Amino acid sequence: MSALHGHWLPVRAELDGQEAPALALERMEFTLSPEGYEVRFAGEVYDRGTFTHTETSLSMTARQGRHDGRVIAAIYQLAGDRLRVCYGLDGTAPDAFKTAVNSGRYLVTYRRRPPGGPA
């Protein structure tokens, strides 16, 4: 089992240089499992698909939801129960953990939800 597998809750996020609203973070959950990935907002599936990874990169292929058919490239850092991911929403992998206006980058820091813990 990969160390990435689990339920992840965002604690901070920014898109194109703008900080994400707290309400959006409170309602989101990102799950990685042997079956694939899933993004939920307020309990509803927003995006679902498959993924592959190396020690520093993710490639997610959406099979259902808003990004159906798209491949989203990302880089990540995993440190204990913290996961930082920078997504290239334009299909190209970011080369740094940063966003800027019109960059097409989404940077999220997650914490692992404890097994059996509240969402």
Would you kindly provide a written description of the structure presented here, covering whatever features stand out?
The protein is mostly beta strands and about 120 residues long. The protein has a single domain, classed as Uncharacterised protein PF14869 family, DUF4488 (Lipocalin, Beta Barrel). It has 1 helix and 9 strands; from the N terminus they run ββαβββββββ. It has one helix at about 20-25, and strands at about 5-15, 20, 30-35, 35-40, 45-55, 55-65, 70-80, 80-90, 105-110. It has an 8-stranded antiparallel barrel. It is globular and about 40 Å long. The chain starts with 5 loop residues before the first strand and ends in a 7-residue tail after the last strand. The model has no long low-confidence stretch (mean pLDDT about 90).
